[in-house]
Amino acid sequence: MRVISGTARGTKLRSPSGGETRPITDRAKEALFNIISPKIPHCRFLDLFAGTGGVGIEALSRGAEHATFVELSKRIYADLSWNLQRTRLDSRAVIHNIDAFQFLEKSRESPFDIIFVAPPQWRGMCQSALDSLCKEIRLLADEGMVIAQHDPHEFVQVDSDILIEYRRKIYGGVQLNFYRKEGNL
After folding, report:
1. Which terminus, N or C, of the chain has the lesser number of Cβ atoms within 10 Å?
2. pTM surpassing 0.85?
3. What is the pLDDT averaged over residues 120-131?
4. Which CATH architecture does the domain made up of 30-181 adopt?
């Protein structure tokens, strides 16, 4: 794992200590950032189920103003903290060692421009996280976007008028679904 572009370009990131995470592939990460790059400068980025932080760190490296990382595992939280220090991006980041669903329910942070959701696969957590985001839509800026990462064979659909899917991309074993608030398409 490495940072692809920006101020920390080429920096190797610490891989997960255990088999608890599935980091996004460089190919999928590069494609993702090619799509969202116009929104990155000066944005507030939420990396939910952050793992070792590869996506949020990439956003910071490319000019995001601030990134919030949410990771429950203490071991992976330590790897994430190390990665932020190694890239020297830790001054623009906050890490929460808490359950993602608790974070969504209790957070009083300012709205985020981009929310990246990449929970463990095949547990129905992606669907649950998107449903929770619909209930806590105050966390998404009016012109913001939500991106969900999951396996292409894992069915994920938002059954809500609040978040509307406007784009879907598949890169090998990674599917990315893009959502915006109703009325902001």
Report:
1. C
2. yes
3. 84
4. 3-Layer(aba) Sandwich (3.40)
